[in-house]
Protein: ELMO domain-containing protein 2-like
Organism: Sinocyclocheilus grahami
Amino acid sequence: MLFVLQSMLGYIWQCFYSSCLRFWLKWFLRLITGRCELQRICARCKTGAPRTSQIEYSLKSSKSKVRVTDTLISGRFSALLSES
């Protein structure tokens, strides 16, 4: 019974966090720091797998699929430009 209650509370928390709390937390941090979520991730993490994982999570959790596409495309172009 306790396991069912814990999993139910976990599910409720996940829904609450992903639907509204995450948005307000990101807005508040952007207001305080002046940086978007991707800039904060890049500033605090060293290059490599941990940074990539956090960026992927951020993009997957984004409500704006247009921004995700723009970020992925601009990332590819900037990688191509840096190789030249």
Remarks:
- The chain has two domains: 1-34, 46-84.
